Amino acid sequence: MLTYELKKAPGIPLYESLYRCIREDILSGRLPAGEKLPSKRALAAHLEVSIITVETAYSQLAAEGYLCSKEKVGYFVETVQTHTAVPATPVAAEKKIQKNYVDLTSNVPADFPFSVWNRLQRQVLQDFGNQLLEPVPHQGVAALRQAIAAHLAAFRGMRVDPENIIIGAGTDFLYNLLLQLLGFQRVYALEEPGYGKIRRIYDTAGAVTASAIMDESGVLPESLGRQQVLHISPSHHFPTGIVTPMPRRLALLNWAKNTDSWIIEDDYDTEFRFDTHPIRALYDPDAQGRVIYMNSFSKSLAPSIRIGYMVLPPALMGQFREKLGFYGSTVSGLEQHTLARFIQLGHFEKHINRMRKFYRARRNALVALLRQCPWAHRLTIQEADAGLHFLVKVDTDLSDRELVTFCEKMGLRVRSLSGYYHDGVPENARHTLVINYSGLREADMKALEALLGMAKS
Predict the structure, then answer these.
(1) Spatial CB neighbours of 277, under 8 Å, sequence gap ≥ 6
(2) 189 near 231, Cβ under 8 Å?
(3) How do residues 91-125 score in pLDDT, each as one tens digit?
(4) pLDDT value at position 457?
(5) Rounded to 10 degrees, what is the CA torsion of 95, 97, 102, 103?
(6) Burial tier of 230 (Cβ tally within 10 Å: 0-12, 13-18, 19+)
(7) Cα–Cα distance, 332 to 319 (Å, whole number)
(8) Which of 99, 154, 156, 162 sits a CA distance of 20 to 30 A from 78?
(9) Rg (CA), the chain
(10) How many CB atoms lie within 10 A of CB 198?
(11) For residue range 8-57, what is the model confidence (pLDDT) as tens digits?
(12) Concatenated DSSP letters for 66-110?
C-alpha cells in the first residue's frame, strides 16, 4: 500500500500533496509502468483522508498522462517518456527535467476542481439527456448567460442584460466576430507594448492595425484617431501591469463618444488582484454604449475550457443579431450547462478565492526568493500586487537577448519586456523581464532555489 506523510501547507490543498507524492514515485521509477494503484476507498482509509482527496489526485494524474483509468478495474501507471537517446538513471532524468521545468513564461493554472466539475457534468448529462444533442442557441445557453450576468453584478458591480451576452470558444473567436461586426474600414488600435497574439489575429484577418501610445496611466486619448477601435486592458495591462485610473478612463470614454469609435475592454486578469478589490470596469461608467466588454475563463479555470464571452452595448446587439445571428454556437451545450451550474452553485467563487490565496502565497514566495538570491542587489521588482505576472528590472550590461539566453543556460525560461513591443523599444523598457508564475509548482520553486544557489557557488 502507498504510504505518504501528507502535511497541510498554506495555499496547498491536501490532494495536491498526494498528487505530488505519487507523481514523484512515478518519475523516479518507484512506481513502474503498468502497476495498479490502490482503490480510492482503500488508499483514503490507509492515509486517513477523504475519498474525494484521493479521487481528485488520481484524476489530475490521469489528466496529465501519469495514470490511465480502466473502467471497473482501477488506475494504472502509464509509461512516462524521458525523451533521452539512451536509458537514463532516475537521477539523470530528474536533472534533465529540472533544467527544462522552471518555466516563467506561461500561465497554466496550478489547479483545477476536477471532482466538482466531473460531478456537475454527470448531473447535466442525467438532467438534460437528449436535449444536449440539439443545436445550442447562437448566443449561448441562457442559463450560462444568466450566471455570467449575476457573477458580473456580484464581482464587478456591472448591470448586464443576459440578452446582450455572447458566448464563444475563447476570445480568439470573439475577436473575429467583432471584426465582422464593426467592419474592416476602421483602424484597430492596440496597446504598445501588448500581447502580440491579438495583433496577429487582427492582421491575419486583414484588418488595419496601429499602436496606441501609452504612458504611466495607460493609453493616451490624444494619440488616437477618429472611427477607430481601441483594444485595451485598463484594469491590468499586460505586460506592464499598468492600471488605468478613472480620470484617464473617462477621457477615453469621451474620445469614443466624440469620434464615433469603439472600445474593446479586455478584462482577462481581474480576478487575481491582491492589494485591493478589482478596479471598476470601463464598461460600467459608459453611458453612451461605446464599450464592448470581453472576458474568458482561461485564467480563472483553464485555457482548455475554451469558453469566453463578450457583452455588447444594446445598439450593437441589434446589429449582431441582424448581421451575424446565423452563426452557430462554438461551445458544446454540455460544457455551457456545466459551467453555468459551477457558477450558480458558488463553486466558481470558492475556486477563485482559494486560488487567489494560493497565487498570493506563490507570488510572495517567489518575490522573497528573488530578494534573497545572489543577484538581489541587481533586481528591482515592479507591479507585484495584481495579476499572475510581474516585472523584474535587471541592472546589467547584457542586451535583452543576451539576458534571456543567459537565463536559459541556467535552466530558466523567461521573456523580456522588449519582446512585447511592435514599433521600437524605449530605453526604459530594456533589461526588464516579465515573470509569469501561476504555473509554478512546489518542485519548480525548489528547482529555482537550487539553480540560484548553483549560481551563487
Answers:
(1) none
(2) yes
(3) 333 333 344 558 999 877 888 999 999 999 999 99
(4) 36
(5) 150
(6) buried
(7) 25
(8) 99
(9) 24
(10) 21
(11) 665 567 888 888 889 888 888 888 888 999 998 888 888 888 888 888 88
(12) SEEEETTTEEEEPPPP---SS---HHHHHHHHHHHHEE-S----S
- From the centroid of its chain, how far is CA 116? 20
| Nine-digit cell string for 262 | 469603439
pTM: 0.76
CA distance 99 to 451: 9
Nearest to 412 by CA among 180, 57, 108, 104: 104
Which amino acid is residue 170, in one-letter code? G
Contact 224, 261 (CB under 8 A): yes
> Which residues are bridge partners to 190 per DSSP?
211, 231
> Is residue 296 within 8 Å of residue 175, measured between CB atoms?
no
Q: What is the dihedral of CA 58, 63, 66, 71, to 10 degrees?
A: 60
The Cα–Cα gap between 390 and 363 comes to 9
Question: Helices 442-456 and 400-410 sit at what angle, rounded to 10 degrees?
Answer: 110
Residue labelled with grid coordinates 512585447:
420
**Widest Cα–Cα separation across the chain:** 71
| CA neighbor of 184 nearest in space, from 208, 201, 210 | 208
Look up cell 477563485; give the residue. Answer: 352
Neighbours of 67 (CB within 10 A): 22
Bridging pattern class, strands 379-382 and 389-394: antiparallel
Residue found under cell 533586481: 379
Q: Which amino acid is present at 366?
A: L
d(CA 370, CA 430): 19
Side-chain-side CA neighbours of 329 within 13 Å: the count stands at 26
* Grid cell listed for 121: 457534468
d(CA 262, CA 181): 12
Compute CA 378 distance to the chain's CA centroid, rounded to the nearest angstrom: 29
* pLDDT tens digits, one per residue of 213-268: 999 999 999 999 988 999 999 998 999 989 899 999 999 999 999 999 999 999 98
Three cell numbers, residue 175: 475577436
**What φ, ψ does residue 313 adopt, rounded to 5°?**
-60, 150
Q: What grid cell was written down for 205?
A: 484577418
